[in-house]
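Why does residue order matter? Because the sequence determines the fold. Keep that principle in mind as you read this record.
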Amino acid sequence: MASPQDTQAQGRLKSVDNAITQIQRQFGKGSIMRLGSNEHQNIPVIPTGILSIDLALGVGGFPRGRVTEIYGPESSGKT
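Structure:
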C-alpha cells in the first residue's frame, strides 16, 4: 500500500507533466525542458570567430532566430 506522501508526490509529478505538455503544445517542442534531460537540438548558429565565446554560448555561436543577452559589470569585456 502506498503511503500518503507517495500518493501526493505522484499527484504532483502528474501535474507537472500535464503543465509541461500544455506548454509544449502551445509554444512548441523545446520551449520547456527538465533539468538534466540530455536532449540536444541541432540549431543553426552564427559563429563569433572567438572560440571561448562560441564555447561559452554552448552551441558554437549565437543561435539564429533567438534573443541572446550578454551582461556583466562595467569593464568586463562585453564589447
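The CA atoms of residues 49 and 61 lie 8 Å apart.
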